[in-house]
Specification:
The chain is of the alpha+beta class and 288 residues long. It has 11 helices and 14 strands. A hairpin with a 2-residue loop joins strand 4 and strand 5 (69-73).
Length: 288
């Protein structure tokens, strides 16, 4: 099928894009990489009267260290993230996750901001952002505001970003030196969404867990933060019994949808297994 007719806009500045959104209202949609919006338009599930392409706004691209944070422009592609020595060095959890997103063709066009703004719990970035403690910069007619990833994802395809706002930048604190990490993802084939996936960021003090983040992809209507599982590990030795307990607590918050990848019971069991694997891998990488 072909999409319904629409008017195409290609602003060259953020201010121009914000003005277009404010003027055109709900009839306008932002275009980043296009991997989510364009297929929906072709199937007539989405029929915006106006398409605002952010691709010419160079200020929305780039990766830089600012103090103890990594700042990433929202229009930075997945391929750019994967090629970045700064990301590999400072945010290896993000680098590992990006390498498991779709395939090279998608990664060359798909953008970090587009993935996050879409609010799809099946996408990998929401859980990665929760695990990394990221914040998102939103710009609109009222100016700029910064929203933490923990609280940004409201529901299925629903986020804190208002209709007249643009997600312009992602800010990620650099994890403490010696932190361990893992993104353990089960999928049917290369390029597929996760059947189940767990992100772990772990900081050890000797044999004791000092800090830990455990987040889940495709376990519910948003990416999920396994708070009870995290709490059960802090201040405890990372022994097999503790890992098993954390995995069961993570399973307890899962409410996956049954689909061709499996029923809810199977997927929930796989979240337990991905959590076990991610904790073991992160522990092996952590400096004590």
């Amino acid at each position: 099928m072909t999409p319904a007719s629409f008017e195409y806009h290609a602003p060259s500045s953020l201010q121009e894009a914000i003005k277009l959104l404010s003027t055109l209202g709900e009839d306008a949609k932002l275009l980043a990489g296009g991997h989510s919006l364009l297929p929906m338009m072709k199937l007539r599930f989405a029929a915006p009267a106006h398409l605002v392409d952010l691709g010419r706004i160079t200020a929305l691209k780039g990766i830089a260290q600012v103090g103890n944070e990594i700042h990433i422009g929202a229009m930075t592609s997945e391929a750019d993230l994967l090629r970045s020595a700064l990301i590999a060095d400072k945010l290896p959890l993000l680098a590992e996750g990006v390498a498991l997103i779709a395939d090279p063709q998608v990664r060359y066009r798909g953008t970090l901001g587009g993935d996050i703004a879409h609010g799809d719990p099946g996408n990998d970035h929401p859980a990665l952002m929760l695990a990394l403690g990221a914040s998102f910069v939103l710009n609109g007619p009222g100016g700029e505001r910064v929203v933490k990833a923990d609280g940004y994802f409201l529901g299925l395809f629903s986020t804190e970003c208002a209709a007249d706002e643009i997600l312009t930048q992602v800010r990620i604190p650099i994890p403490a030196a010696g932190s361990g990490w893992s993104y353990s993802k089960l999928k049917r084939k290369s390029g597929d969404f996760a059947t189940a996936a767990t992100a772990v960021l772990l900081q050890m003090q000797g044999d004791t867990v000092a800090q830990v983040a455990i987040t889940l992809t495709n376990a519910g209507v948003t990416a999920l933060k396994a708070r009870a599982a995290e709490d059960s590990l802090r201040g405890q030795p990372l022994a097999e019994a503790q890992i098993e307990g954390a995995a069961r607590l993570a399973m307890g918050i899962c409410a996956p949808m049954a689909d061709q990848r499996g029923d809810a019971a199977y997927k929930t069991a796989m979240f337990g297994e991905m959590t076990r694997r991610a904790l073991h891998a992160a522990a092996a990488r952590a400096t004590r």
